[in-house]
Write a structure and sequence with these properties.
Helix content is 60%, strand content 7%. It has one domain. A two-stranded antiparallel sheet has the order 1-4. Strands 2-3 form a two-stranded antiparallel sheet. The chain contains four helices and four strands; from the N terminus they run ααββββαα. It is mainly α. It has helices spanning 6-46, 54-57, 88-97, 108-133, and strands spanning 59-61, 65-66, 72-73, 76-78.
Length: 136
Amino acid sequence: MTFMAGDEFALALSRLATQSGEIAKKAIYEGAKVVADKIKSNLEGVLSPEATGDMLASFGVTPIERDSDGNWNAKIGFDGYDSKGVANQLKARTLESGSSQQQKKPFVRPAINATKKSAVEKMGQVIDEEIRRLNL
């Protein structure tokens, strides 16, 4: 790490402070993308050949927002309804946990377990790149 003298260092810290929200959003998005890609891949593996693709098409990542506690969050999940009016969230939960009529086919939990470390690493890389870009 290089230490800068007085005004240069203060300016660099100021730039980092003013852009911290954007840096956090970029990092969270990239980390969420790692997890979402694995969930989507796992989902494709458990869907039946007769699946319409409605549930897969409804899968995504929400915009990244700050909550009331000041934490940045993104949600990964399903939205909307299939062509028969069944909520995609309900279908996903039934696949993940099973029901009295359907054996469980977990695809979310295995994806999270498999990607947690790589998602955190990717977020760290994005933060490091953004700090270097600001010449800190």
